[in-house]
Amino acid sequence: MDRSDNEGERPAEVDIDAAVDVAAESGSAMLAGHLTIPEGATGIVVFVHGSGSSRHSPRNRYVAEQLNTAGLGTLLFDLLTSSEELDRANVFDIEKLASRLIEVTGWLRRQPEARRARLGYFGASTGAAAALWAAARPGADIAAVVSRGGRPDLAGARLGSVSAPTLLIVGGHDDVVLGLNRLAQQELRCENRLEIVPGATHLFEEPGALQAVTDLASGWFTRHLNSQ
To answer: What is the pLDDT of residues 128-137, one digit of tens each?
Structure first.
């Protein structure tokens, strides 16, 4: 594993807290990321950011820190390189983003510290569609998926092939996205649930809204990633 100096303060009882360079299996890209694995963690959540975001997303970082506190590992990474982001078509190419996620997942499984861990995906916005697309792949072996203000509808026909338990979290005032999530939920054949955060808009910027997301995600991942 390629590591650089640790970024920021380390949470208590953390086994790994390091910046990483994730080499895509195809050799087409080197992606920057940050891997945190608390001591004794049995599950790792891979974060899949949305359009216009990155591994530095303050909302995803907040959720990741709370998951670390709950004893779960996290991997935040950039889906695209800086040069790839210049082409806006890449940002909304769900198949390309899912393929990149699959490559990163393969990299993570090859790390000694992660080989026995159960993996989950946390997707936001378009990243949720990429997460579900990747989770639908035969043999994906993803233990759980959480979508925050996501666009699962963009995963299209792949939704019916998702076997990972899936939690959809949407703000109560995010009307358009809420409607799209309800339609997408009808296509899911796996264990699934739609949770609505009252009064929240798309970015969950209202007081207490992001904490509600974190509590829901933490409960879902703890239940499914810690089970044998």
So the answer is: 999 999 999 9
- pLDDT at 146 exceeding the cut of 50: yes
pTM of the model: 0.91
Number of domains the chain is built from: 1
Does the residue 3 lie in any domain?
Answer: no
Structure tokens at 138: 């035969």
- Residue 138 falls inside a structural domain: yes
For the record, the structure tokens of 170 come out as 């949407």
Residue 1, in any domain of the structure: no
pLDDT tens digits for 15-64?
888 999 987 665 567 899 999 999 999 999 999 998 767 787 899 999 99
* Domain coverage including residue 163: 14-225
Q: Which two tokens stand for residue 67?
A: 């998951």
Q: What's the CA gap between 122 and 53, in Å, rounded?
A: 14
Cα gap 204→31, rounded to integer Å = 27
Cross-strand pairs, 163: none
CATH number at 55 reads 3.40.50.1820
Closest CA to 187 of 144, 133, 121, 118: 133
In a domain, 8, yes or no: no
Give the separation between CA 10 and CA 4, rounded to whole angstroms: 14
Query: What does the block give as tokens for 45?
Result: 């959540």
Q: What is the pLDDT of residue 77?
A: 94
Nearest alpha-carbon partner for 151 in 178, 171, 175? 178
